[in-house]
Amino acid sequence: MDFTSLLRRKSKAVPGSESGAKGPDLSRSLRRLLSICRDLLSESDGISNAARATDAIRLYETLDRPGRIAFFDILIRDFSPNPDDLVRAVDEYRQDPSPANLRRLQQMVEPPRQELFRRLNMAVGGTRALVEMRHLALSELRSNSQLELISSDLGHLLGSWFNSGFLTMERIDWNSPAVVLERLIAYEAVHQIQGWHDLRRRLEADRRCYGFFHAALPNDPLIFVEVGLTRGMSERIQPLIDPDAPVGDPLAADSAIFYVRAAVLNGCRSALRRRAVRRRVLAGQPDQRPAASAEALVIKGQERDEVIRALGRLPHRQREALVLRFYLELSDEQIARVMDIRQSTVRSTVVRALDALGRDLKETL
Fold first, then answer.
1. Helix (H) or strand (E) holding 164
2. pLDDT (tens digit, 0 to 9) for every residue of the chain, 365 residues total?
3. Residue of 50, 69, 68, 48 lying closest to 59 (CA atoms)
């Protein structure tokens, strides 16, 4: 069966594509929401569309869960590619594979709801609303497999909007805004933070917490990493999260234990997971799996113990620069902001650290 025949068969299976198909009984809010969405798509970008998008998001948020699912179902039925137009575009491209016909085919393939989602993103709070839409679609997949279309469309857009180039990395400490600290408490699900006393211990001098932020969600750490600076390797996670544990000297530490790594917005989690925002410990290290303990990712090298000891012998600033560069894969600009030094100093610090590490390992390995 060729592609055109397959498309024609698909056109008969699109929900609501049959003549005379009846939609669900719609609430007034849902009817109004759909009317605004159609207006959004019919107008060019502009200030008026930003206002419409905000109105649409507010109406969507007034819907209960069944109402939101009904909205998704209508987007699938009425805002999908037109199969007949798509078949014609395929035939035209086959006959004449010109750039113009290719552009037309690409336009026909993209669902109109993707452009709708782009325009909804112009709303105040639009990005967060779209993330939550995808979270809802994912949570309902078992009972409604058609929602994979909504999840896929939003995942495609979020994967572009939330790639690592648009994220900034900032250290989170006790002086960070209260709203960020509150979110950190709320989002930590693996080893829950039991209030402010517990949080303060996790942000002491022998701990590091870094968050990745997006401009559209400035107070939400989309990914956060918690690091314990310790003397020696810990076989247990409990000492690292004990709120009453004594504070160690970070300058005396010879190990860095990455004990929490979390993506905190479910709707964009899979998009963020694809992004290389925290993958390697040392340059050229291909193994990205966690260490034997699922709860502790420990700095690894060609010979782990020797590398850890060699890192521990580096000056504190050189050690921190290597972790930020090769584990979190930050740019010179980002490292300079975190360490409060110039970019030129970042580069020279990393070079000196690698030279020293190489000399040390050459003597010991």
1. none
2. 444 443 444 444 344 333 333 444 578 999 999 999 999 988 766 667 889 999 999 999 999 999 999 999 999 999 988 888 888 888 888 898 888 888 888 888 888 999 999 999 999 889 989 999 998 998 898 899 999 999 989 988 988 888 777 888 889 999 999 999 998 888 876 678 889 999 999 999 999 898 888 888 888 888 888 888 888 877 677 888 899 999 998 888 888 887 766 665 555 555 444 444 444 323 333 333 333 333 333 333 334 556 666 777 788 788 878 877 776 667 888 788 878 788 889 888 888 888 887 777 665 54
3. 68
CATH architecture group of domain 3-161: Up-down Bundle (1.20)
Tell me if 346 sits within 8 A of 339, measured CB to CB: yes
Query: What end-to-end distance do the CA atoms of the chain give, in Å?
Result: 61
| Domain range summary for the chain, segments of one domain joined by + | 3-161, 164-364
Q: CB–CB of 206/250 below 8 Å?
A: yes
**C-alpha distances in Å from residue 47, one per residue of 40, 61, 116, 284:** 11, 21, 16, 48
Contact 223/277 with Cβ under 8 angstroms? yes
With CA atoms as reference, report the closest residue to 178 among 194, 199, 193: 199
pTM of the model: 0.59
DSSP, collapsed to helix, strand or coil, labels residue 174 as coil
Phi-psi region of 226 (alpha: psi -120 to 50; beta: other; left: phi over 0): beta
CA distance 230 to 283: 23
Quick one: 247 exposed, middle or buried, by C-beta within 10 A (0-12, 13-18, 19+)?
exposed
H helix and E strand count, the chain: 17, 5
Residue 58, Cα to own-chain centre: how many angstroms? Answer: 24
**Would you tell me the crossing angle of helices 65-78 and 28-42 to the nearest 10 degrees?**
40
Q: How many CA atoms lie within 13 A of 226 on its CB side?
A: 24
- CATH 3.40.630.180, domain 164-364, yes or no: yes
